[in-house]
């Protein structure tokens, strides 16, 4: 019997320790004598670590009680500092461009001006997820999502760019 199997069996038998001594000893006979010798202080600490899972109160129940656990809002850092700095350098001219775009004019005329499309092309926004060896920006999903936050400032441009990132892109590459 391996140590892992024994740990699983021990976890099943441990709750019965409060039962009358003879019954508990009968349960313990299920374990092999050679395996019982494995129980030392290290194994017991491993067992207690297995049993003691951090308890969290149910999220929705707490909402109804008026409590909000802010630990659920913790967001993992996906990018390292260098990647984050590179991303910010890429985003600054794009943010500047989108602050200058006349969204109302695009909506009134129902067309995106050629000058705007040319600028989008120069910024590399039509190839956001295309690998760099093919001339794209090679953005990860996290970086692409950050770009999408900015391009969403104008709905027409956002849809145009999203179509270039979604329709048939992965099949071609």
UniProtKB/TrEMBL annotation:
Pfam families: Acyl-CoA_dh_N (PF02771). Residues 94-168 form the Acyl-CoA dehydrogenase/oxidase N-terminal domain. Keywords: FAD, Flavoprotein, Oxidoreductase. Its cofactor is FAD. One of its GO terms (molecular function) is acyl-CoA dehydrogenase activity. Belongs to the acyl-CoA dehydrogenase family. This is Acyl-CoA dehydrogenase/oxidase N-terminal domain-containing protein.
């Amino acid at each position: 019997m391996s140590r892992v199997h024994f740990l699983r069996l021990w976890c099943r038998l441990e709750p019965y320790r409060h039962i009358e001594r003879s019954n508990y000893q009968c349960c313990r006979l299920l374990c092999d004598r050679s395996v019982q010798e494995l129980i030392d202080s290290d194994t017991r600490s491993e067992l207690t670590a297995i049993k003691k899972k951090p308890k969290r109160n149910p999220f929705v129940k707490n909402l109804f009680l008026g409590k909000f656990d802010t630990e659920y809002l913790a967001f993992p850092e996906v990018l390292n500092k260098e990647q984050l700095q590179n991303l910010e350098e890429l985003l600054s001219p794009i943010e500047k461009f989108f602050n200058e775009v006349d969204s109302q004019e695009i909506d009134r005329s129902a067309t995106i001006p050629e000058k705007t499309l040319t600028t989008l092309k120069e910024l590399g926004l039509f190839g956001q997820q295309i690998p760099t060896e093919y001339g794209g920006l090679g953005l990860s999903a996290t970086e692409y999502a950050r770009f999408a936050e900015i391009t969403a400032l104008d709905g027409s441009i956002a849809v145009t760019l999203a179509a270039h990132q979604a329709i048939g892109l992965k099949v071609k590459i």
